[in-house]
Design brief:
Elements: H1 3-23, H2 32-53, H3 63-88
Helix pairs in contact: 1-2, 1-3, 2-3
Length: about 90
């Protein structure tokens, strides 16, 4: 993987984290940096899951992979918000 691929993966992860946070209803009391970190991890996990199901490489936009990534980010944001809220209370 080249440096350009790593940078683009980080940027996509940041967008995925923001989308994941928007999907989760209610207010999440976690810092934005944590949301973005979750997005980066979710983008990687979503790509791995899409590869397992054989939908990582499709013609045009990889909508299924994108939906998987956002779903993983939403679950990650939701779980982290719960843990983070208990930790700071």
């Amino acid at each position: 993987m080249e440096i350009g691929g790593i940078i683009s993966a980080i940027i996509i992860g940041l967008v995925i984290g923001a989308l994941g946070r928007l999907v989760v209803p209610g207010k999440q009391n976690i810092p934005i940096w944590l949301t973005l970190a979750i997005g980066i991890v979710a983008a990687l996990l979503g790509t791995i899951i899409a590869g397992i199901f054989g939908v990582a490489e499709t013609e045009g936009v990889d909508w299924i992979e994108l939906i998987l990534q956002v779903a993983v980010a939403a679950v990650g944001v939701s779980l982290t918000a719960g843990f983070y809220a208990r930790r700071t209370s």
